[in-house]
Amino acid sequence: MIRLDDVSKTYAGGHQALQKVNFHLEAGEMAFLTGHSGAGKSTLLKLISLMERPSAGQVWINKHNITTVARKHIPFIRRDIGMIFQNYRLLQEKTVFDNVALPMIIAACYSPKEIRRRVHAALDKVGLLDKERYFPKMLSGGEQQRVGIARAVVTKPPILLADEPTGNLDPKLSLEIIKLFEEFNQVGVSVLIATHDLGLIARMKYRSLTLKQGRMINDGLAHVESEEVR
Amino acid sequence: MSFLFKDRLSRGAHTQKTSFYQRIVGAITGVFRQWLASLGEIWRDPIPSILTIAVLGVSLTLPATLYVVVKNAESVKGNWDSASEISLFFQTDISQKQVQRTVKEIELMTQVQKVEFISSKQALAEFESLSGFGEALQYLDDNPLPDVLLVTPQATHSSPTFAAELLEELESLNEIEFGKLDIEWLRRLEAVVKLINDALTSLALLLVVSVVLIVGNTIRLSIINQREQIEVLKLVGATDAFIHRPFLFTGVWYGFFGGVIAWIAIELMLMWISLAIEHLAQLYQADFSLQGLGASDMLYLLAISMGLGLLGSWWVVNRQIKLIEPQTT
């Protein structure tokens, strides 16, 4: 589903964020991407979501090489990727309903009825159906993150990328969020979660990719990896 | 709609069954929604918008006022046609018959609008009554004054160059001794009118440019203020056009409201000065009333101001939105 071939990324100024990274996330697979801050987790996600371009190597999504895709095609590629962020990235002056509906409004190929149905389904999934008229700042961090997740999944994208989705949440809430990702994964969505919350990963039996100073140093099951890092 | 996953939207059987027609309708309602949303955006945070709109209104009022001035000046200029009147003096040694025939001939020329014949007797009588030399003239044996024909050229031939050409043509007639046309005066008048016109036009152009700049700057600031939202939109797959539209619409709304303010300002101004103008006209025994902006002028004003608003926003939106790329931190 997502494949990186010998991908390197050097930022302007010479900082080498990624060096010759290879990995392949299968369709319907769920994996964690770990490593210390600055190890290159965010850069890797940015390369997949086309917020950055690789300096060398190739990025493939569903057998399409997106390394050199034209700028005008980027929005359409992003519509196939549900993205979740540490700081939620909600529109503060829009209601929860409008935030979740946003990807469908942008795609402009859903009827109002369809939009309502899907928003309600997504909000029901994350347990916020009764808060659709709230504004983001009236919600707690965990609730805002769940709105972010509802927005990411409302168009049923085949890929979910999450960048430190539990970074601002306590362990109990974090687990709930990860459980949500598990549920999406069970219906066939490929999920890649970047996190440095090793305790959380250790409890799950998922593939874990570890980055250290821009290199992929481990690609295996979580419990093996977490011991090594410790 | 999906680039990477050809079958994606058809996978969920009950979800996507939109016909081409439905898509068109969806796209139009989407644009309409953005159009209304941009108005709502102005409504929600009115202070900066009101200030911008007020500045636009003032900036538009000036060129529109100039337009009203020019429009009124043009109606006044209609009274200046006599400026290019040509006086033709006949030879004194020709018969009345020949004079009459020449008058007819000139009257029938296409360049001539009308002629007025003043016989030497009439001229003498007029001279006597106006000059006060009445008694002195009694001593003259015969009338020294020639017959005179006042020729008014057609409007198309009343400019100095054309009038001069016409004069030359008329002078070439045998029966005419010479003709007179006060071209210098006409040339000066025309030069003054042209100067005023050019000055007003360049002033209007400057103000129009300032409208574009003001709208552009306001839109630029609002784009910078909404950087966060624009990044979010880009992250969830909004095209540049989708992000541009609300800002372009806002520019058009600014132009619209600025135009309305300009129109109101002009109407108030006209009400204010029309009484004074009428009083002045009465003192000059002229029948003159100020013309305001008509309905079509009003529509032009709004169309132009909305166009300028669009131009101003379009000018910055393209570049400014390209500068904003999403960051995850």
- Our measurement of the CA-to-CA distance between the termini of chain B, rounded to an integer number of angstroms, reads 29 Å
Low-confidence stretches of chain A: 223-230
- Global morphology of chain A: globular
Strand elements of chain A, count? 10
Number of helices of chain A: 8
Radius of gyration of chain A, CA atoms, in whole angstroms: 17 Å
In terms of quaternary structure, the protein is heterodimer
Helix-strand pattern of chain A: EEEHEEHEHHHEHEHEEH
Mean pLDDT level of chain A? 88
DSSP strand content of chain B: 5-15%
Low-pLDDT parts of chain B are: 10-15
How much helix is in the residues of chain A?
Answer: 25-40%
Question: Care to describe what's here?
Answer:
The complex is a heterodimer of chains A (230) and B (329). By secondary structure, chain A is an alpha/beta fold. Chain A is 35% helix and 26% strand. Chain A has helices spanning 41-48, 74-78, 96-107, 112-125, 141-153, 171-186, 198-202, 222-229, and strands at residues 2-10, 16-25, 30-34, 56-61, 64-65, 81-84, 159-163, 190-194, 207-212, 215-221. A six-stranded mixed β-sheet of chain A has the order 6-7-8-3-9-10, with helices on both faces. Chain A has a four-stranded antiparallel β-sheet with strand order 2-1-4-5, with helices on one face. The longest helix of chain A has 16 residues, at 171-186. Chain B is α+β, with helices and mostly antiparallel strands. Helices cover 69% and strands 7% of the residues of chain B. A four-stranded antiparallel β-sheet of chain B has the order 2-3-1-4. In chain B, helix 8 (183-225) crosses helix 11 and helix 10 (240-283) packs antiparallel against helix 11 (295-323). Chain B starts with 7 loop residues before the first helix and ends in a 6-residue tail after the last helix. Classes of the chains: A alpha/beta (230), B alpha+beta (329). At the A-B interface, helix 1, helix 2 and helix 3 of A face helix 2 and helix 9 of B.
